[in-house]
Write a structure and sequence with these properties.
The chain is of the alpha+beta class. The protein has a single domain, classed as Jelly Rolls. It is built from two helices and 13 strands. Bound molecules: 2-oxoglutaric acid and fe (ii) ion. InterPro entries: DUF2086, Oxoglu/Fe-dep_dioxygenase_dom. It comes from Candidatus Nitrosacidococcus tergens.
Length: 181
């Protein structure tokens, strides 16, 4: 990760054909998330409508030359971290993603908290720490989400990252729904 100034740790992207379980996680979570994504876009007056079926969404990515698969495994050792970032890999963005923790906090590692930041217009950033157990997943916005204000919905900017590992090894599986250019 250091190479790209993303933090410190190792990451590996899967290639097509994806392992069945990764493929299933993507295609079976997608319809629920697409429903929410469509609600968000409606609230924000964005015309995009995500198809109900994942296969159709992936075709759209591929037509737009986003053909490289984005699911990945990340490994953190003592001292490693993941800077606050947004997983944008081209102009086509599916607005929700999922990360699953594959190690047990306090048993396999300490530190290494998953964090989300939310930047509301003209305000200081807020931070949310998501405490996960091994096998838990967190579904979160890739870059923006709607919030209801006095004059309707507005967008807030989101980033995610991982705080420094104090000891041990921490593995995660990242499921991003859009492919990369
Ligand atoms: O390791 C984590 O908890 C976060 C990994 C990440 O940035 C991602 O899944 O997109
Ligand atoms: Fe990420």
């Amino acid at each position: 990760m250091a190479r790209y100034n993303f933090g410190q740790g190792e990451y590996k992207y899967f290639t097509y054909p994806l392992p069945t379980i990764i493929e299933k996680l993507r295609s079976e979570f997608y319809p629920y998330l697409a429903h929410l994504a469509n609600q968000w876009y409606q609230q924000l007056n964005i015309e995009t409508l995500y198809p109900k079926v994942y296969r159709e969404y992936l075709q759209k990515c591929h037509i737009l030359e986003q053909t490289r698969p984005t699911p990945l495994i990340l490994k953190y050792e003592m001292g490693d971290y993941n800077c606050l970032h947004q997983d944008i890999y081209g102009t086509e963005i599916f607005p929700l993603q999922m990360t699953m923790l594959l190690s047990q906090p306090y048993q396999d590692f300490t530190g290494g908290e998953f964090v989300l930041t939310e930047q509301r217009p003209r305000m200081q950033s807020r931070v949310e720490v998501v405490s996960l157990h091994c096998g838990d997943g967190v579904i979160f916005p890739v870059s923006q989400r709607p919030i209801e204000g006095k004059r309707g919905f507005y967008r807030v900017n989101m980033r995610h990252g991982v705080s420094r590992l104090h000891s041990g090894n921490r593995y995660t599986l990242g499921i991003i729904f859009h492919d990369a250019r």
